[in-house]
Amino acid sequence: MSTAAADPVLSPTTGEPVAVVARRNRLGIWLCIVSDAAGTVSLLIAYAYLWSLNVNGGWAPKKGAWAPDWLFWAIVLGMVVACALLWWGVKSVFAGHREGLVVAATLSSLLLLAMFILQIWQLATFPFDISESSYTSATFWLALSNAFHLSLGSLLVLAVVNRTRAGKIGVDNPFQSRLVAMWITWLCAAALLGAIFTTAMKDSPNTDPPAFQSFTQPHTS
Amino acid sequence: MSSATEVMRPEEVPQPKQYGKPGGFLRHTNIITGTVSGIVLAAIAYLVAGALRPPPSDENALALPVGLDPQFAAMYIGWTIGLLLGIGAFDGPLRWFLGHDLTHEDAEYMAGAGQGKWRYFKYTTDHKVVGKQYLVMSLVLLGVGGTLAMMIRTELGITWMEVFNPNVYNSIIGTHGMVMVIAMIIVVSGPIGNFIVPIMIGARDMAFPRLNALSFWLLFAAVPPLVSSLFLGGIRDGWSVYQPLNSQAPVGMLGYQTTIIVFAFSTGIASVNLITTIVTMRARGMTWSRVPIFVYGIIGSSVMGLIWFPMFQYSQILSWSDRVLQSNFFNPAQGGSVWLYENLFWLLGHPEVYVIVIPGTAALMELTTVFVRKPLFSYKLAIAGIFGVVGISGIVWAHHMYMTGFAPSANYPFMLSTELISIPFGFLVLVLLGTIWRGKVWTRLPMMAVYAVVWNKVVGGITGVWLSDVPVDQYMHGSMFVVAHFHFMLMGAALFSAIAAIAYWFPKMTGRYLNERIGSIGFWVAFAGFQLCFGSMFFAGLQGMPRRVLQFDNAFNLSNWLSTIGAYTIGIGTVIFLYAIITSWRGGQTAPMNPWAAQTLEWTVPNPVPLENFKVLPVVTTDPYNYGVPDPYASQVADVGDETSQKVSVS
Fold first, then answer.
1. Which domain holds residue B634?
2. Which residues of B603-614 are buried (b: 16+ CB within 10 A; e: fewer)?
């Protein structure tokens, strides 16, 4: 992608071309993604670790009700569509069509908002309590993390709509829309990882975990 | 080493619409509004959470949150959000959302222009103000942590009676540990990283000035919950607060958890800002081979903080969840695992040592070149050492868990990786020694600290290698030997490096010399006390004295008496050094622009450093350590500060 502007627009606060500021911001967003990814990886480690250990046989939900997979995937699908829409808008504005970004970002923000509501609904209707087992705790937190991501993401895309309509993001200064799209892309990846984990890792491979109550020292003669 | 280049001044650029007076909402916010807002919101959150809490009944007692945890959790969340609201931290995001972009006048107001000393108590974005805020905060935290250390040593030194009851004593230990860890993480990267690094690389400010202010005020928000925990049952289980003790502790534990969660945000934001600034805002001509070594140290520390701090943060978020939401991450009876906590904790817990030590070591390398008038010995080896440590730091964490029963078969690989990290770390010591070797040493206070730190690092490093060995660790684990070892690294290496760094850059940060005579007395008294305190502790550990105990066998009396005398000596030295800092800052001898005749860019701007640092951005033409080498571009060197700037030519 390239800018359509001939004369560079300058930042009112630093006097630099906005393209220079945008390169700086892009690195900042990459680093924020790295940091947020480390947090997401922590949750995934927690999920996988507890799944693999099945301590005290306490991984599976007590009532045997796992979270339905389709809802995780429906949310991921909605996020991916929202992300694709936003990227289409970004491409439009870089190609010189500001209105394309307004339409695409509006649709994207509405879709993200809908996914946020769906995520909250999922949290509220899980067929288990958070305290039921380690699976329920880990799954609850993956969903909660995604809800936080979605709330932040929908606000950011809404801001893109607002700023584009106000002329702050435009053909000669389109960069912020791309930064937000980068962030939303990462949120999709995080949601996808969550969906893969919760779908693929249900029954623990450790079928004969030691129970602390019955643990005894092996006999030595 | 530099000439100059022209860029467009911001005031010459078309400006967006000015909404109200420059600064807008931030004209009305400061530390008072922030604190009041934080307290009010904390109180409201506490009361609302209490009102919403369903009454326990026989039917649902097991499913409900227990005790006062939800209320105190709400209180700490209320405090943090309230403080940020009241200080004006949400003003920037809101303006961005609404499309009310900053004008240059807004940005200048936010940077503190024309606000005098009051700017230090506001959401000020100027990196120099933030640097000084960090300096004062780290000194306050060191004071608090040091006082707690004195209380610990008082208890252990008075062997014939109990000064504190066991719970209070344990709380003092845990709080001392956490306060000091925070203080040591910020003591170089905070003040020097913020104040000096942007100037050192030829930038006008940090890449994200508002995030810079946010990182400080998040730190400010993180401290009161930690202190409050002392009055809410305390942190009785050491600074690592292993599970399940974490979940079983009194509600004060929520203060500890809040502090780590908020501090991790602060550190992450600061890391993003520092890395972005260094990578994208270096002066023209400052190629990666001309970047001062201190800047590499800051990058290395920031990279580690960025990647590993979230793991640490999640160890506490999930612990918070176990307490407040009754989840089961760490409760083995319901499928949780305490090893999960230990893994997440030590994934940062060990790299944190390098987050602390690397910037200080890099600062020593920086100033050693100045005081021995020689180029840095093997600049590339120093960079390899820094990034070697950064790389290996991620695969050493489980050496803290040899004795926990976690993956015994992994003990030896982790032993190997831990011993391996001593190689790049050794590079850094060798670079220091190589730089000093056959140099004409100008022995000033910062240089004295270099000698002290090299000694402390050797002692701390070698004992660290011993402890990384599984057989030795099986014997020494949980003993005072371990305490002595990590104090030699975290205090002996890092804190004394920080003293050197502060003494070296003090003239640039304050415009005045640090009182060399009083400062040196304080420094050497503290150093002597340090050797006595922690040297004796090695012997207590070798004799078999466990750590974190209140009562012990008479066989350990002598080493404990000596340790306590040493601790009080450190205290006296520190007070003398603090006296030197305060009196020098207030009325010390005025320092010229470049008192050490150094060659890095921060010494080419006048004192006090003007807002936006450079009138004209510099262009770098040589490397920063050309001592003894004539500058081929010397005749082209232009003013890079204001009219009072002078060309720096050193050989």
1. 607-651
2. bbbbbebeebbb
